[in-house]
Structure formats: C-alpha cells, structure tokens
Specification:
Distance between the termini: 50 Å
Structural class: mainly beta
Number of helices: 1
Strand order of the largest sheet: 14-18-17-16-15
Helix content: under 10%
Shape: globular
Largest sheet: 5 strands, mixed
Strand content: 35-45%
Order of helices and strands: HEEEEEEEEEEEEEEEEEEEEEEEEE
Radius of gyration: 20 Å
Number of strands: 25
Length: 306
C-alpha cells in the first residue's frame, strides 16, 4: 500500500473513531460556572444534549432560552404561548419536549429553530404538567395536580402521535394536597419509571401501566424533590427549597436505595432541575423564595458531579 493511500485510510479511521465518541466522553475546557439568564425570566427546566448548549424554559410565558455552555451567551429561540415551560428533555432527533405547567399542555419543538412541531392538550381544568422523561419508546409527563401520567408513544422512526395517552397512577402512591408527582426518570433496568412525590419526599418505581411501588430508602427521604438525573444505578434528586442535590444508590430494579450524600453550593437559590455535560451538573435557580419582578436577576450554576 502506498504511503498516500495509507495516510488516507488512517485519516478516515481516525474520523470514524472521533465521530463515534459517546456523549459526555470528550469535551472542551469547561465554560463559566455561573450563567446569567435574562432578567425576569423565572427559569425552571433545563435540557442538555450531545452539544454544549443548554435549554431553559420560562415560568412566566413559556419562552425557551438557549445558552452556549462554552461562553455563557444565549438567546430566546422560541416565544412561549403565554403559559409556563417547565420540565424539558432533548431527544436524538434534536427535538425538545416541553411540559406546560398549569397550561395543562405539552409541546415538541425543533431545538435548532425553536419551531413548534406539535402541541398537545393533556388536561382540562386544574393541572400542573411538571416534568418529562424519554424512555420506553415514549415521552412521559407528570401532572403534579392529578394522579396521572401522560404518554406520547414514539415509534422507531420517532413519529409524533396524534394525541397523548392518559395513564392513571395506582398502587402505593397516595394523592394528597400540594405537589405530588414531580420529577420523573427511568429505572436503571430500563423497564419502568421513577417519580418523586415532592410533598412526602417519597420515591416510587412506576410501571408503564402506572402501577406504583414505593422505593425503600431505608428511612431516608427527599422532601421538596424536584428534577432528577439517573446515571447508571446512581440517582441524583434536586431538593429545591433545601438547596441540595441528594445522591442515592439504587439497586438495578429500583426497589431499594440508600442516600449516599447531600451536596449544596453557596450559589444555589432554589435550584429545580438538573442536566449533565462533561463532568458537571447544571441547575437553574428558580428563586421561589424571591418575589419575582421583570428586573429580578436569574442564573444557572454548574457544579462538579458529586
């Protein structure tokens, strides 16, 4: 083989290896550890994909703000419908799934352009569509005001369904006044869901049919539990008003868990949700204990992964 052909083959092989690098495996040097968001924005949800950009939703009007993690600069890419944008998740097709809070709805956006691909009216009357996870071939949304999940089935081509499926929550969870099912994520075995009931601090393994079983935390709990992040068998729960990230070691089936650590940071000001990039977690400060005004400053903060 000639040297020129050998060089071309080597370069091609190197390109394949680089292109195959898993998400989170190789990143540039970290950007700012504190990111300024627009004044008056009132952030709640965050989503980060393979690229170094974070997406934030506004509780005020549902605007979506995209930020470069490298520079901290950002812009509004999608004007909201006038109702909140809360929990957010990105899929592999560059689509952003948005929980619509007391609007009782969900939206799917093109994360590049901000265009609305489809909207779903999930709940009439009192509702609080709070968080979303993508697992089990579907997008799953919690409703903190009602004992129900909403499922958007996604086929192998990723086609969006015409409407959502209502999945009542049954079993161990007891619906009560206040914030009920809030954050949601997958189980380590990929066969179910984990939801946190904020008012009680309990975690529940939930089947795709909505049957709940309380996860035994050995006497531990996560009151004010909000956004969650699963990494292998390690579950991270943001306890918003307590200003901590709680690390829980689960068994593979999420039947038992042990609280390993609780991490705080002086920059936390009621963080709500959590996303990972590189070796960092990023969390928006919702500042629930601060009276919001159009000029109230808001930030997101990055902390080393505990």
């Amino acid at each position: 083989m000639s040297r020129r052909i050998l060089a071309l083959v080597t370069a091609a092989a190197l390109a394949v290896v680089i292109g195959a690098t898993p998400a989170g495996a190789a990143h540039r040097a970290p950007g700012p550890a504190t990111i300024a968001l627009p004044d008056g924005f009132q952030p709640e949800g965050i989503a980060i994909g393979r690229l170094p950009y974070a997406y934030f939703g506004s509780r005020v009007d549902g605007d979506i703000y995209r930020v470069s993690l490298g520079t901290g600069r950002g812009e509004v890419i999608s004007q909201g419908p006038g109702t909140p944008s809360l929990g957010l998740k990105l899929d592999g097709r560059n689509r952003l799934f948005v929980a619509g809070g007391n609007g009782g709805d969900a939206r799917v956006l093109n994360a590049g352009t901000g265009a609305v691909l489809k909207s779903y009216a999930l709940q009439s009357g009192t509702a609080f569509i709070n968080d979303v996870v993508l697992t089990g071939g579907a997008a799953w949304f919690t409703d903190s005001a009602n004992p129900v999940l909403f499922k958007l089935p996604l086929d192998r081509r990723g086609s969006l369904p015409a409407e959502a499926t209502r999945v009542p929550l049954t079993g161990a969870i007891v619906h009560q006044a206040g914030i009920n099912a809030n954050g949601i994520t997958a189980t380590p075995d990929g066969r179910g869901l984990i939801i946190v009931q904020s008012g009680t601090g309990k975690l529940f393994r939930t089947s795709y049919a909505g049957v709940t079983t309380e996860i035994d935390l050995g006497g531990g709990s996560v009151p004010n539990g909000d956004g969650m992040w699963l990494r292998g068998c390690t579950l991270y729960v943001v306890q918003n008003r307590l200003n901590v990230i709680t690390r829980i070691q689960l068994d593979r089936h999420a039947t038992r868990g042990e609280v390993v650590s609780r991490t705080t940071d002086p920059r936390f000001d009621v963080p709500t949700t959590i996303a990972e990039y590189g070796k960092r977690f990023y969390l928006p400060n919702a500042r629930f204990t601060t009276t919001p005004t159009p000029t109230t400053p808001y930030t997101a903060v990055a902390v080393p992964r505990p």
